[in-house]
Design brief:
The complex is a heterodimer. By secondary structure, chain A is α/β, with parallel strands linked by helices. Chain A is built from 15 helices and five strands. Chain B is α/β, with parallel strands linked by helices. In chain B, helix 3 crosses helix 4 and helix 3 runs parallel beside helix 5. Chain B is elongated and about 75 Å long. In chain B, about 45% of the residues are buried. Chain B has two domains: about 220 residues, P-loop containing nucleotide triphosphate hydrolases (Rossmann fold, 3-Layer(aba) Sandwich); about 60 residues, 2-Layer Sandwich (Alpha-Beta Plaits), CATH 3.30.70.100. Chain B is about 35% helix and about 30% strand. The chains are: A alpha/beta, B alpha/beta. The interface between A and B is medium-sized, with 28 and 31 residues.
């Protein structure tokens, strides 16, 4: 008897929230307009200097020559070789798993090629092209001129390092930006909508009535987020549709994975918003708290600046933010063809995040006025 | 269970301010019971504690035989609450608001639609049920709020100043509804600062600065006033008033239209002749009158002020 009644109450709250949305034309318009504007505006992303990109090296030459080459490349500060690999295939798998963003392959005849001077590249540099900022930084290295020893032995004009882009060979920034935008837009709208959801009822005096009804905290919280899950999925569809239409984002065959991850991410953001709403005294305070969350999400998550190029402390902070994990997942899926299994840790983090904040909001929400 | 509400030593403090101060009260079942008091007398705070919206700083509350806060959830199913400020959703229509309340208050699905429309008819809201609640007049909003508060057939109805901003005709209809519900077995607790409304209640308590200063039936309250009331009519009531103000025997003098109403302090046995002596020289007629609710109210609140 208790279960269906609880269910009815959740539906009642959800239906009411949906009606608020329908009546509020402005908010409803924002649901579609925010993705549209942002997508067009951010179609061109910001390029920045990038240093200390984690890289792996497969040194099949393993001589003084190759070790000096590695040291010289590290001296550019663009790459940090912190992983060893055995073969080009191994390098590719390290990149696919996101362990490193670049891989240097030194073939066993690398030194020989140098002295032959036939213009064959000595080594190959594999780069995760899905992050165009990173890729651009690594591509500078194709002009790198290596001089073993102190003598100017061979002034070869030919390219010594062949850079090969994995996953995004055309270096299209949009491929990188659009999945990121998916995360930014969802963070913005989902957290914003729900951060005022409870404080607004408090401000308008509805709460005084609502809390004298038999509705339970968790029922109220679930009822409040359900309509926004629908709204979030509509936004995902708008962004994907535009992304395919305007920027040719490859989503074919990955839709189920994309929607699954987006759904989890949406719920995580909604529960975060609800928690803000139970903490804030008024709508203005809720908005300030929202910006307090949103700005770091924009700046630290890897949307604007490559994650690996950030200082350690910023990375640690970023790890808390759901957007950081979402970007890792969605870029992996859309650009590198990752499976859900491959990004399981980030997905688990988001699920844990959502459950944690759903509970926090339900506990924080007091069915009293004092 | 003989009483709808029983409170003992009920106290609510906000910081250093005491809004409700050691109130004892028994509200019998199936009565229209009034809380009379000026703004800030603690009526709203008391009613909010009785429906579990505020936690008492001290004291015990028993509502419908159940304890607050332990059994607040069960109590909420049986209590209807109408807030002082309109608290339904302004952007939702009348019908949507009523449907929402029916669902949330647990009205059975099979009865929901019937119940909603029955109440809309009864409170004359059917003809504009698709209008947003925010677009309604003050009286219509009050009727909607009352309809929503009774949707689940509550045993106890708590109404916080339900007739503020309402014209006299709507107010009369509103009170008629309260008595119909009362006859149907519902206990009604209503706060007001209007004397004529207080007079309609079966029983009432007068609150002043957080304390209960009097309670009983309107009739008993007036009979037990213990003060003599005189009405003076004539040309010179202004000068008469000047003569009377400041006399130790006189509690208050109030101008009501062309009359002057004089209340003596309780226990003073002075009569019309004494009063005529005090205002000798003024052209006035003096007669003894029955105490009104307002006299009771002025009396009990002034007495407390003097004591403080």
């Amino acid at each position: 008897m208790s279960m269906p009644a609880a269910f009815v109450r959740i539906i009642a709250i959800s239906r009411k929230e949906f009606l608020h949305l329908v009546h509020d034309r402005l908010t409803f318009g924002m649901v579609v307009m925010i993705p549209l504007f942002q997508l067009v505006l951010f179609g061109y992303t910001i390029n920045t200097d990038v240093r200390h990109i984690p890289a792996a090296v497969a040194d099949n030459l393993n001589s003084g020559f190759s070790r000096q080459l590695i040291l010289d490349l590290e001296a550019t500060q663009i790459l940090d070789f912190n992983q060893m690999a055995t073969s080009p295939q191994h390098l590719e798998s390290l990149i696919q798993d996101g362990v490193v963003s670049a891989g240097l392959y030194i073939p066993h005849d690398g030194e020989q090629r140098y002295y032959e001077g036939e213009g064959r590249p000595l080594v190959q540099l594999l780069v995760d092209g899905s992050d165009t900022t990173l890729a651009a930084a690594v591509r500078q290295l194709s002009n790198f001129s290596f001089q073993p020893g102190s003598t100017v032995a061979n002034q070869s004009q030919s390219q010594q390092i062949a850079v090969r882009l994995l996953y995004n060979p055309e270096r299209r920034a949009a491929l990188f930006t659009v999945p990121g935008l998916l995360g930014v837009i969802l963070t913005m709208t989902m957290v914003m909508f729900t951060s005022i959801a409870i404080v607004r009822e408090r401000e308008r005096g509805n709460m005084e009535l609502l809390i004298t009804t038999p509705v339970r905290n968790l029922e109220l919280m679930l009822g409040k987020i359900i309509p926004y899950i629908g709204i979030g999925l509509i936004q995902v569809s708008v962004i994907l549709f535009l992304g395919v239409l305007l920027f040719n984002i490859p989503v074919a065959g990955k839709l189920l994975a994309i929607y699954t991850v987006c759904l989890i991410f949406i719920v995580a953001n909604l529960t975060l918003g609800l928690t803000i709403s139970t903490l804030a005294r008024n709508q203005l305070a809720a908005m300030q708290m929202f910006i307090f969350i949103f700005l770091p999400s924009m700046l630290l998550s890897g949307f604007m600046f490559p994650f690996v190029a950030m200082p350690k402390i910023a990375q640690l902070l970023a790890e808390i933010l759901p957007l950081t994990h979402f970007l890792r997942i969605i870029r992996g899926i859309v650009l590198r063809g990752e499976t859900l299994n491959g990004v399981a840790i980030d997905i688990l983090y988001l699920i844990g995040f959502a459950m944690f904040f759903l509970l926090v909001s339900a506990v924080r929400f007091s069915k009293r006025l004092d | 269970m003989k009483n709808a509400i029983q409170v003992k030593g009920l106290t609510k403090r906000f910081g250093r301010f005491t809004a409700v101060d050691r109130v004892d009260m028994v509200i019998p079942r199936e009565r229209v019971y009034g809380f009379l008091g000026p703004n800030g007398s603690g009526k709203t705070t008391a009613i909010r504690m009785m429906c579990g919206l505020l936690e008492p700083s001290a004291g015990e509350i028993e509502v419908l035989g159940m304890k607050i806060p332990e059994q607040t959830r069960q109590i909420r199913r049986k209590v209807g609450y109408m807030t002082q400020k309109f608290s339904l959703y302004s952007d939702l229509t009348i019908l949507q608001n009523m449907q929402f309340m029916a669902q949330i208050m647990g009205v059975e699905k099979s009865q929901r639609s019937g119940r909603v429309h029955q109440l809309l008819d009864r409170f004359h809201l059917s003809s504009f049920s698709n209008r947003p609640a925010g677009a309604l007049s003050g009286g219509q909003k009050r009727r909607l709020a009352l309809a929503a508060a009774v949707i689940h057939h509550p045993k106890l109805l708590l109404l916080d100043e339900p007739t503020s901003e309402v014209d006299p005709n709507t107010r009369r209809e509103f009170w008629d509804e309260l008595f119909i519900m009362c006859e149907g077995g519902t206990t009604v607790l209503v706060t007001t600062h209007l004397m004529d409304e207080a007079e309609r209640c079966h029983q009432l308590a007068i609150l002043h600065e957080g304390q209960k200063v009097a309670d009983g039936t309107p009739k008993a309250l007036k009979q037990n006033l213990g003060s003599r009331i005189f009405q003076m009519d004539g040309q010179d009531i202004t000068s008469a008033r000047h003569l009377l103000v400041g006399l130790p025997e006189v509690l208050t003098t109030t101008r009501i239209g062309v009359s002057l109403r004089v209340m003596l302090r309780p226990g003073q046995r002075e009569d019309e002749a004494w009063l005529a002596e005090q205002v000798s020289g003024c052209d006035l007629s003096i007669k003894t009158v029955e105490p009104s609710m307002e006299d009771v109210f002025v009396m009990v609140t002034q007495e407390t002020d003097k004591g403080a």
